[in-house]
């Protein structure tokens, strides 16, 4: 499956953005999907994940209450709605698919397929 993240850009602190992750090649309806981010000079970190049926979600503490992950299996797309953005949210954001376990995981090594990232820059 090919994943393509989009929707990044420059936004002021307190603003909002919606990232999209469009999948092609295979349906992602049976995959757990996740969002990760990597800031300059830092390791890639978990942001959010969503189960196959979209009933289950899980968030990093740093984004809980501000970010919302969702999916539209019919459109083969996953979203990350980000609000109350902070300068420390600045990073390249990646979407990823977990194709084996079938349950939500938060470790990058557990995800099998990765898309190219999209840059989010939050100015103070």
Topology:
Layout: E1 2-6, E2 9-12, E3 17-24, E4 32-38, E5 45-50, E6 57-59, E7 67-72, E8 77-82, E9 91-98, E10 113-114, E11 118-123
Molecular structure report:
This protein has strands spanning 2-6, 9-12, 17-24, 32-38, 45-50, 57-59, 67-72, 77-82, 91-98, 113-114, 118-123. It has 124 residues and is mainly β. A hairpin with a 4-residue loop joins strand 7 (67-72) and strand 8 (77-82). The protein starts with a strand and ends with a strand.
Short description:
This protein has 124 residues and is an all-beta fold. The protein is 0% helix and 49% strand.
Largest sheet: 7 strands, mixed
Estimated structural class:
mainly beta
Q: Which spans have pLDDT < 50 for at least 5 consecutive residues?
A: none
Classify the helix fraction into a percent range.
under 10%
Order of helices and strands: EEEEEEEEEEE
Percent of residues in β-strands: over 45%
The general outline is globular
Radius of gyration: 13 Å
Strand count: 11
What do the pLDDT scores average to? Answer: 96
Distance between the termini: 37 Å
Number of helical elements: 0
Quick tags:
single chain; mainly beta
